[in-house]
Amino acid sequence: MVDEAAYDRRRLRQWLSGRARADGVARRDVMRLLAAAGLATGLPVAAARGASAATAAAGIVKPLPEAWFTARGTNAETNFAALADSGHHTPVSHFFVRNHTSSPQLDSADWALKVWGGGLEGGGREFSLGDLKRLPAVTRSCVVECAGNGRSYFTSQQGQSVSGTAWTLGAIGSARWRGARLADVLRLAGLRRDAVDVLPRGLDADYVTADGMNLGRVRRPLPVAKALDDVILAYEMNGEPLPPDHGAPVRLIVPAWIGIASIKWVGDIEVSTEPLFSPWNTDFYRLFGDAYPPGGSTPLSRQTIKSAFELPWNASLPADTSHRLTGRSWSGAGTIARVEISTDAGHTWRRARLHDTPRRADWVRWSASWRPTTPGPATVLARATDTTGRTQPAATQHNTQGYLFDAVVRHPVTVV
Ligand SMILES: Nc1nc2c(c(=O)[nH]1)N[C@H]1C(S)=C(S)[C@@H](COP(=O)(O)O)O[C@H]1N2
Ligand SMILES: [Mo]
Predict the structure, then answer these.
(1) Ligand nearest to the CA of 402
(2) Where does 305-415 sit in CATH, by number?
């Protein structure tokens, strides 16, 4: 970018328009904000957006074409319909982004991971990217999925109010991650036998809540047992160096756990012989509400079970034509055992055909054919069951922050 000032102005405009749509800020407020920032002289927000056919989310580096993404504030949701003809893994170009602030662009030559704390023998250790690459590399295919994925259905399907980003089902992606084992790094750093928690922390900016509280850098404790099991310090995604929006140069990948565990742009890891806390395991990422204790549930760890059609919301499907309905299902507990489809709002169900060998912490693609006959509105449903015997229910127990929605989503279509 040659003209840095112009770039900054464009970014701020994008940020304002993204925020406007995410928060329902009236256009007049956006214009007031723009005026305050001295930017109201240029294009109106809507025109700036239309011109590029890209959607704007503050602080995201990669392009966000409207066909592939829905911007939600500082985040970008993958449109499931855009995955219809892609392979098992989500291309980096289509992978959802969930940022508390914005993607920092770090220089990997300057980057180092500091491992420190009372849970280590000795004074800790630093690892450069080269150091990590010299350790045995592991490759793992798994999803990263936000704990709030599907949150909007608490409201649209169950009539309940919840706080947080109103995701549909696209706050998930699957990739082939490659990196060093966190277990190897912790052992080289002198992990003590009585260590209980590790606390990875991102190098992105401090997170300041809507009401102005600075919560510091994004960080969430992880029990040592999980850290030693299958966690990766990933430096590659789908065979390429990790891109800026997904945590370059190095992020954690914590298979089967909620997305917040997979800290991006990791800069340091505290190791402790005492349980550790941060707002991300005390206030956020616990279940609060009528069905839960006053202090909330225990901190969330594993993801739940979900299914999604690769079909636009309110898709039009011609009658008396055979359609191949496709989609994906996943579970944080077992692997997917079966997927059932209903094209009559849940009265009758039939098995979908699976197109991947179900694997732990990853999704499976599936398909089912449907030849609708009667024009008019219809509802299609997909319901997965995993190998622990868990089946997606008709409704999810409410929690105030709208985490872990697992109910069958009622997907409207119109037969024409
Ligand atoms: N440092 C840092 N790590 C982070 C986040 C963040 O904002 N900062 N967001 C978390 C959340 S809530 C999710 S769901 C995943 C999203 O990963 P992605 O943006 O690569 O899809 O990253 C997690 N790691
Ligand atoms: Mo998340």
Answers:
(1) 2
(2) 2.60.40.650
